[in-house]
Amino acid sequence: QVRLVQSGGGRVQPGGSLRLSCAVSGVTFSGAVMSWLRQAPGKERELVANIGIPSGTYYRDSVRGRFTISRDNAKNRVDLEMNNLKPEDTAVYFCNTGSYWGQGTQVTVSS
Cis omega before residue 54 (within 30°)? Predict the structure, then answer.
């Protein structure tokens, strides 16, 4: 059974930082491309960042330089470090690999 279990997130003021984690089981993690996506109210889900094999990365333009995606193949975990957060980063964030999804985590950036 494939499971992606997310943790982290919450509410932060503009300029603050948050870290999201996704613990993965049931797949060969070291061979999986891992992604973080987000969906804001009334908007389509969008790719935020992904990390390939062994560790090539992609970031959408609006988060490049502020967000960092990383993976720990020993712990089957992928993280998203988010710095200098902006109100427009407010969304539900999802961990993803292939057709499998985490449960979603709310990130709210507001003063």
Answer: yes
